[in-house]
Amino acid sequence: MSEWYRLDNAGKVFHAVSEPANSSVFRISTIMKKTVQSEKLQLALDKTIKRFPIFAVKLRKGAFWDFLVDNKEKLYVQLESQYPCAPIDPLETNGFLLRIIYYKKRISVEFFHSVTDGTGALEFMKALVYYYLVHLGEEVNYESVLIDIHNEQSYYERDDSYQNYVTNEKTVMAKEISSYQIRGVPIDQTITIHGRMSAGKIHQLAKKHETTITVFITAILIAAIYKERLKYRAYKEEIKIAIPVNLRSLFPSNTLRNFFGVVNIGMVVTESTTLEEIIRETSKQLQEKVQKEILQQSINDRVKWQTRLTARFIPLPLKYYAIRYGYRSFSERTKAMTLTNMGMVRFSESIDPHISHMEMVMYPTKKSPINGGMIAVGDELVITFARMIQEADIIRTFFKELSKTYNLEIEVYSNDNR
């Protein structure tokens, strides 16, 4: 008998809002030192997907909510042939909600966000790379603080941690005001621009400003958006960056499913605002908002809102309509861009010599047509922007500011072959 799983709180939202202009598909890539051998990667995938049964699933229609059920079909690796983060067609993947892609030295894993978040996807990628190297005959070890891939999936790995941590505490969520929104000429593909630099030097720059890498990069991004879009406008709207927060760091959990929150950080910038002031305000807001009590309220609010939809006899299409309305009103309109920081990825010392660097691509949407992702391994930090508009002015100014102002060497490369 097939096992089935409820979509978690965030999974229902991503399922409801996904469409061609909002694929809800994100990508994590590992760039190896040598060209990828597809047959060895397929063997590695066969081994990895067995260890992650929570990801070997397909979507099924339900009476009250759609749900996930075991998928016994075979998942095949694919030579990269389309733009990053394209919607996943079940016919293309035998019903699976992820795809494994290779191109030259790059191994990419793309997940539909209803299945997992960046943390879960990263565990899958680390296991895939480990088994790939094993099949190449390399002597490597696997290390992870979240799971043990040499044992079967634990109960905790499939936990819906939103439900576990919801409390009866009354939520008092402040109404989020809208943000400046980036606009441009839409294009029908996702262009990615990557900036590869020294993680150590960025850390030193952030430290010099007495802050973290996330705050430092967010502040430069806010300054770049102001310079390119708001400097010569009479009405100065607040520029907000949405930053995903891994809830596992505050609410202990080993789940491989979605378990993250989002905080919006921003301010009104004027001609007289200095970068130091933006850094101070960004740091202050991030410290205030990434507090357990604040994020607990966020969990309660999100879970109870969906519980109310479940308790009432509301046809499923109307539930999804309500979720889409809430997403547009309370999520998309309250940010200019999302910037997700996957942090420093740690493989075992035996695997490190086989890896060049990594990339994280956060899919853009119609209302948020440029999104950013950061990921580091060793001393290699890559900041990636994915856009679905023609204009690259904000991205160009961001990298220019980093390289010229701070005398930082950045290798910028793109998939834009138009």
What does this structure look like?
With 418 residues, the chain is an alpha+beta fold. 34% of the residues lie in helices and 24% in strands. The strands form 3 sheets. It has a 7-stranded mixed sheet, sandwiched between helices. The radius of gyration is 21 Å and the shape is globular. GO terms for molecular function: acyltransferase activity.
Name a few traits of the molecule.
globular, seven-stranded mixed beta sheet, alpha+beta, single chain, 15 strands, 34% helix
**Residue fraction in strands:** 15-25%
Instruction: Tell me the distance between the termini.
Output: 49 Å
Order of helices and strands: EHEHEEEHEEHHEHHEEHHHEEEEHE
Low-pLDDT residue intervals, each spanning 5 or more residues: none
Mean pLDDT: 93
- Report Rg: 21 Å
- Going across the biggest sheet, name each strand in turn: 10-9-11-13-14-8-15
Shape: globular
Protein name: Acyltransferase
GO molecular function, one term: acyltransferase activity
InterPro entries: Alcohol_O-acetyltransferase, Atf2/Sli1-like, CAT-like_dom_sf
Keywords: Acyltransferase, Transferase
Topology at a glance:
Elements: E1 4-6, H1 9-17, E2 25-32, H2 38-51, E3 57-60, E4 67-70, E5 77-79, H3 90-93, E6 98-103, E7 106-112, H4 118-135, H5 161-165, E8 186-198, H6 199-208, H7 213-230, E9 239-246, E10 260-267, H8 275-289, H9 292-311, H10 316-330, E11 337-345, E12 355-361, E13 370-377, E14 380-389, H11 393-405, E15 411-414
